[in-house]
Structure formats: structure tokens, C-alpha cells
Amino acid sequence: MKKRWMCSAAVLALSTMAAPCAYAQSSVTLYGIIDAGITYFSNLNGHATFVANDGSIQSNRWGLVGSEDLGGGAKAIFQLENGFNLYSGTMVQSGVLFSRQAWVGLTDTTYGTLTLGKQYDFFWDNLTQFAMGQYAGQYAWHPGDFDHLAGPLHINNAVKYKSPAFYGFSFGALYAFPSQSVSAGTGHVIAFGARYDGGPFQAGVAYTDTHDLGLNAPTQAGTTLFPNLSGAPVVATSVSTIGAGASYRYGRSLTRLLFTDTRFRVARDNGSMPTYEINEVFHLTPATTLMGGFWYSKLGEQKFQNGTLLLDYALSKRTYVYTSATYLRVSGGAAPVFLGGGSAPCFPTGCMSAQGSRRPQSGSACARGSEAAKRFRERGFRRVDEDRSTKAPGFWHISQPAVCRQARACIHRVRAAPVLIDSSDRRCPGSLRRRREPNLHRRVPSVAGRGRRQWPRALR
Fold first, then answer.
1. pLDDT 10s digits, 387-399
2. 337 DSSP β-pair partners
3. Among 224, 390, 406, 451, which is most exposed with the fewest C-beta within 10 angstroms?
4. What is the mean pLDDT of residues 367-389?
5. HSE of 323 in the Cβ direction (CA atoms, 13 Å)?
6. Which domain holds residue 335?
7. Both ends of the chain: CA-CA distance in Å?
8. Reduced to 3 states, what is the DSSP secondary structure of residue 305?
């Protein structure tokens, strides 16, 4: 079980400027958001520290949005939006000017809106408004933001349709052709959504299925998704998410409920991460807003819990200050990682370094395996590296797993190679012994490159 506290205080300024219209009933608007502040982490790499953090509750951006009246209720529309890092002045996605949105289309009051280009899915359109991350930002989003509520899924090559509202109901669909962007999915994307706006009551549903999507789960959420996966980034065969949310406003209070469920399929592994959230927004005064909420998420044996409070004060229509506090608690082998920051994730198979590679965790199974290497050599074990490119210092690699009760060793995998740990250590989990037994006759390449069975000398 791991816990973390986070407190942040920041100032956000929102500036909107309309450019002079070149033609009647046509407009181009320059807009932007700047968010900067200081965050205190109670546990960042094992230490409490302050961090200069920008985009805490709103990602920094600037963009252009425009329209031209075509008559008869029809308009030509476009939007270009760039994301940037305030403290460094760099673009969020190197080499991509408009990394957030870049689309053009037609809209009609009778037939709806058709747009083409880089766009968001319907989780952003229909469900983000029910999440406490809408107010509290990056420290309140669901684990890894795999359900796209913060808008990380900028879908390339997308064709999107949204219907006009019929008595408060509207719906939409999106299809994206394969692209070269791993972060947005190199396969096709299918998405649907619907929403209802009926005065004080609002509701929305959304579904997105993305193929061949690149995921860096340890950095995003402090998990490798599945126990047998390493900490390296993976390309998921399919990531499908379904969600539903609703809110009701009464007086100065707004109650919001939200549910999302993300299903991952990586090679032969698959599993789902359901998340349940409830939050309350209360306007103390016209200029002061208080928000509090809680969500619970689960992936296999891994559990995530987040409680967040936020106090926001508007200095003007465009400038306001805020302070927030978040408590994150995880268990089941996951690491406490916020979407916007946190310590390097550590797992039984090692820790993720800042560069995303693994290093032994002090006192962990990996470290204990390194300490036992000399004893294994004395017992006749030979070191055979399955893949020299993934060899980690201090890790003891052999090409064939051995069973604890026979070799007096416990096996745990790091990347593609097993690590042996002295079974006399009571911390050697019996579940790993049972898990590795079916792999005793697995054929793997030897150092010389020939595939053959190699057993530790103690078992021959």
C-alpha cells in the first residue's frame, strides 16, 4: 500500500482577443490559457519537495478559431490549437505546431456539424464536464487518464459528425483512418457519443475504441497493466473505453456522478479498469467556488483511490487564483503516480528511472536477486543472457527457469529474462513458483544463438 499527498497553489490567466473581422458575419478569434504555480509533493522519489509546475488545472495553450457565414444557417468553421510548456517555452509535442486540435468543417443548424482533421473524441465533448479534473486538473484525473477525460487523445485523420440538438438530445460519431502517431493510435479509431441538456439536469455517454495505441503505463499511472509486462512502453492491440456521467444543479450546488471502464488488450493479455467518481461543486459566492470529490479505480489486484479539494477565487472574468489538495492511495503493486507528476514508479521487477529504463529497487526482489548471484554461482548456475540489449547490472539471467523447491530459488521476470532469488528468504512469494512451473520446458536462445535447453547444473 502506498500513499501520497499533494498540495498546489497557482495563478491562472485566461486571455481572449478577437481579431478585426475582414468580412461581415465572419470572424477569426485568437484565444489562450496560461496556468502556472507551485506544487508540494509529500513523497517524490521518497522525499518531500516543492516543484514548479505549469498547467496544473488547465493545460497551457493558444489557438485560432474561425467561422464564415455561408447563408441559410450554414457556416464554414475551423480551429487550430497549440499546447506549450510555460516554464520552458517548448511545445508539448516536439515538431508538432498544433498538437491539440487542427480541423476544418461545415456546420448547419438543420443537419449538424461535419469536421475533418485532428480532433477529440466524445469523452472530451460529453463527459469531461462531470469529472472533478475539470476543476482540479492533472492531480484529479483518473489513473493514467486512459479514459481520455483530460483530452490526451488527439485523434489524427478523423472524420467527425455531431447532430443538432433535438429537445435537448444530441449524438455523434467519429472514425479515424490509421496514422503514423503511436500516441494517438496507428490503427483506426471508432467513437460514438450522446448527451442530454435539460436545464438543471445534464447527462452524457461515450465510447471509444482505439487500435495499436502506444501506452507508457508506468509513467502515466504507476502500473505495468499486467504482471507479466515489463516497464517499457507498449503498443496495445486495442484500448476501448465506455463511460457515462450525469449532473444536477440545485441552487448554488452542483452534484456530479461519473463512471468509466477502460479495457486493455496487449498481445494475449486483457483486462479492464473501471472507475467510479462522485464530486460536488458549491459556489460560496459569485467569485468563490469550492469543489470536493472522490474516485475509486481498480485494475486486477491494483486499486487506486483519490480524494481532492479545491478552492477557487475569481479576480476577474479572465483571471483567478486557486489552491487544491489531493490525497492519492494505491495498493496491489501499483505506484502512486499523478498524471502531472510524482515519483519514478517502482515495481517488484525494478524501478523506472527518469529515462524510462529499469534499475534494481533497493530491498526489492531484484536487489535481493543481485545479492544472491554469488551463491548461485557456487551452486553451479551459469549466467546466460537471453537478450544483451536488456541486460541490467546485477540481474542474474538464465535461459531456463527453475522451480523454487528444486533449485532453492525463486524466479521473477525482469523484461525478458528471469531473476533468481534465494528461496530461503521468506519474502519469496510462492505464487511466483507456481506461476513459473508451466514454463520449465520453454525453448530459448543460448548465448551462442542456438535454441536449445539449458538447465542449471544443479538440476541436471
1. 333 333 333 333 3
2. 342
3. 451
4. 40
5. 3
6. 2-352
7. 41
8. strand
396 and 265, same structural domain?
A: no
| pLDDT at 204 exceeding the cut of 90 | yes
- Count: domains in the chain: 2
Identify which of 162, 175, 72 has the alpha carbon closest to the alpha carbon of residue 112: 162
pLDDT at 220 over 70: yes
Query: Which of 352, 376, 406 finishes a domain?
Result: 352
pLDDT grade for 375, boundaries at 50, 70 and 90: very low
For the chain, give the number of residues: 460
Residues 308 and 197 in one domain: yes
pLDDT for 446-458, tens place per residue?
333 444 444 344 4
How many angstroms separate the CA atoms of 116 and 104, rounded? Answer: 6
User: Rounded to 10 degrees, what is the CA torsion of 113, 117, 119, 121?
Assistant: 70
Q: Determine contact, residues 14/322, Cβ cutoff 8 Å.
A: no
- Same domain? For 159 and 292 the reply is yes
Q: Which residue has the cell 476543476?
A: 135
User: How many other β-carbons are positioned within 10 Å of the β-carbon of residue 12?
Assistant: 22
Give the pLDDT of residue 147.
Answer: 93
Enter the DSSP assignment of 97. S
Helix (H) or strand (E) run with residue 270 in it? strand 269-285
> Which H or E element spans position 70?
strand 61-71
Average pLDDT, integer, range 296-322:
94
Which residue, of 327, 352, 377, is where some domain finishes?
352
CA proximity to 165, closest of 244, 108, 246: 108
The CATH number linked to 221 is 2.40.160.10
- Rounded to 5 degrees, φ, ψ at 184 are -105, 0
Put simply, whether the predicted model's pTM sits higher than 0.85 gets the answer no
Distances, alpha carbon 376 to alpha carbons 417, 436, 444, in Å: 16, 18, 20
d(CA 152, CA 13): 22
- 344: DSSP letter: P
Note the pLDDT tens digit of each residue in 132-184.
999 998 899 999 999 989 988 889 999 999 999 999 999 999 999 987 765 55
On the 0-12 / 13-18 / 19+ scale of CB atoms within 10 A, 57 is buried
CA distances to 128, 305, 448 from 140, rounded to whole Å, are: 12, 10, 51
